[in-house]
Amino acid sequence: MIATHDSLSDLRERLRQFAAERDWEHFHVPKNLAMSVAIEAAEIMEHFQWLTPEQSAALPESQRIAVAYEIADVLLYLVRLADVLDIDPVEAALEKMAINARKYPVARGI
Amino acid sequence: MIATHDSLSDLRERLRQFAAERDWEHFHVPKNLAMSVAIEAAEIMEHFQWLTPEQSAALPESQRIAVAYEIADVLLYLVRLADVLDIDPVEAALEKMAINARKYPVARGI
Amino acid sequence: MIATHDSLSDLRERLRQFAAERDWEHFHVPKNLAMSVAIEAAEIMEHFQWLTPEQSAALPESQRIAVAYEIADVLLYLVRLADVLDIDPVEAALEKMAINARKYPVARGI
Amino acid sequence: MIATHDSLSDLRERLRQFAAERDWEHFHVPKNLAMSVAIEAAEIMEHFQWLTPEQSAALPESQRIAVAYEIADVLLYLVRLADVLDIDPVEAALEKMAINARKYPVARGI
Description:
By secondary structure, chain A is mainly alpha-helical. Chain A is built from five helices and no strands. In chain A, helix 2 runs antiparallel to helix 4. Chains in contact: A-B, A-C, A-D, B-C, B-D, C-D.
């Protein structure tokens, strides 16, 4: 059912093994993983909370790296959540982009 | 700097074009996109808010599809956020998994 | 244990009755209510996601009213969460402010 | 415009003074404060992420106190956000409860 989407399917397999080796599978129900995604998303925001939009686009390198790891956490939990729900996130994203493209058509001048 | 990670790099390119065609690039500063990721993460949670953990693992098909689109929204904003920060999310995720593996070593019996 | 803090204790009593009359008390476990607070907090953010900081401080009246109801939702779930945990939120807030005052002392000139 | 709602109006006044003394008022635009509310809401969730609903209702005392301070943080930012938007959160909450009461009428048996 889930297509073999390269980088993300590799992450998915690693996360499955990681959870199985630690006997964490019973924690990884969708309700809990959905909370995890939201918690990690808030940790991304913490870095930008008091910055102006302009400052947020010009992070010092040490902070950019810290944000990279927070983005990583969201991605890991998101891939794991999709997996336990048997959802292909890339396929869903492509479908959603097609919906968005119809919803927000490109303005064409003369 | 950003490696060519297949499915996600494809999404990244599509999102760049989507934003450019609509002249949305000035909205896509990291501060705003970090908010977007968190907002969409909360929309995933909405589906699980009142369910027991067991119910969350046995969603009716219509609801599972609705959750797939919310997961898609988080993924799209996350990929876009990583792009404007010049971060490779898969590389960061692999590094983070290595850190987690050291932090939570697998228990080995005798 | 919970002091009688006027406006909030009034809300707390109304929320208790509201839940009891609808037989919703079994839904109102702390895990679920914590999700509710976060979900409603994200709905506040939705109004500000694409605004500049300046625009966020000058909302059109219709949007200011919409935000008021989102703030109301966070407050209602927060008061309910505190209640089921037997926490007095105002007392906790006053203690937290005292901690913050020590953490961030006021700079005094000569 | 804002009614004098006792405990919360007291918090509101203390928060105004706290911000003024530290020259933090320029940080306290609605966009930033909305992020703060959501970030602190996620910190409440962190305590419940891996607990069963039953466990979440029977926290060890040390953890219950930790949650009290997270609830305090949400309340403080929420009151501050309402203040800079000139919103009375208790009034809004009472109106919202009236709306909810009409939306979810109490079931009456025979």
